[in-house]
Predict the 3D structure of the following.
Amino acid sequence: MSAVRGAHIAVKLANEKVLVSGGDGGSGGGGYLNTADLYDPIANTWTAVSPMNSKRCSHMASILSNGSVFVAGGYNGGYLTSAEIYNPTTNTWTNTASMSYARQLATISVLSNGKILVAGGDNGSPLNVAELYDPSTNTWTVTDSMNYARIGHAATVLSNEYVLVTGGCTANSIAEIYDVSTETWTVTGSMMSIRQYHTTSQLTNGTVLVAGGIISTSTYLNSAELY
C-alpha cells in the first residue's frame, strides 16, 4: 500500500478491486489518515485514490446498491458522526448527512430494504444505540436501542433478513436479533463464551460460525461455536 496503516477498513467493489481507507499510521506514518488505496487483484498493484474528506480510523464501511462505498464514524482524536460516500467511477468522496451519535468500532449492516443499520460502538464508553441510514433520502433515523451496550461485537445479516448481533459485552454472552420489519431488538440465546473482537461467518446452510475473540486483555480464545 502507499501508506502504513492499522485500524483501517477494506471493502470489495463490484469490479473485484478492493478499496482500503483511513486508519492510523502511528507516529512514523502520519498519525490518523484520510488516504485511500485501491488494490487490483489482476494486475497485483496498489493505486492511491482520492483521500476521504475526514481522517478516520476504526470506522465503518459498506457497499451501496449502486456500487459506491459508504463510510461512517470512526476516530481521529475525537469520535466522529460524519459520513461520506466514495464513487469509484469518478474517484470522488462526497460528504453525506451525519449520524446522530458519534462512534467508532460499531457494526454496519446492509438491510434488504436498502437501508444501513449502524449499532453500538464506542464514544468513550460502550453504546447500545442504533440508527438507520437511508441512501435514497440521505437521512439518518434513530431506531430501537439494543438491550445491551456493545463494543467489539459482530453483526450478521441472516438468511431470514434479521440481523444477529453477538458479543461485545464484558459481563455476559447474550446475543440479540434486530427485526427489520418492526425495527426492534429481541434477546436470543446466549453464546457458550463471553466474546469481544471475534469473527462471525454465515455458512451455506444458514448457520453462523462464531470464532475466537477475547474475554479480557489477558484471556484470548481459540474456541468456536455455531448459531
About this structure: The mean pLDDT is 96. The chain has no helices and 21 strands. Residues 50 and 90 are 10 Å apart (CA to CA).
